[in-house]
Design goal:
Layout (H helix, E strand, L loop, with lengths): L3 H18 L3 E8 L4 E8 L2 E10 L7 H4 L2 H17 L7 E10 L4
Parallel strand pairs: 3-4
Antiparallel strand pairs: 1-2, 2-3
Length: 107
């Protein structure tokens, strides 16, 4: 049995690889503030992506809405605002929030 942390890290690695293979530059991983964390911050051309990664070892999507409730969404948005305030060089970029679901049945 793998720990939740190991499964999550594996999923984040796969998500980062997917983004990189699709032309995104990974700016940050697991960027944290006191209020929250963003799993991956990536950039492609003039688009800055704040990505939440959800690894589902059971292969089911039914828990996704529970995992990404309104409170979690607000925390991600607030953390993204803090990132943009700190790194003003990205302020002219278009912003996108993504959820990357990594299906890892049997992991």
């Amino acid at each position: 049995m793998y720990s939740k942390k190991i499964i999550g890290n594996s999923g984040e690695d796969k998500a980062a690889d997917f983004l990189s293979l699709n032309g995104y530059e990974i700016i940050e991983r697991n960027w944290r503030t006191r209020r929250g964390e963003i799993d991956i911050i990536a950039k492609k051309e003039d688009i800055l992506v704040f990505a939440e990664v959800k690894t589902l070892p059971s292969g089911g999507l039914e828990t996704l809405s529970h995992e990404l409730n309104l409170r979690k969404q607000k925390r991600i948005i607030e953390t993204a605002k803090f990132f943009l305030a700190k790194y003003r060089q990205y302020n002219k970029d278009k912003i996108r929030f993504d959820v990357l679901v990594v299906d890892m049945p049997g992991f």
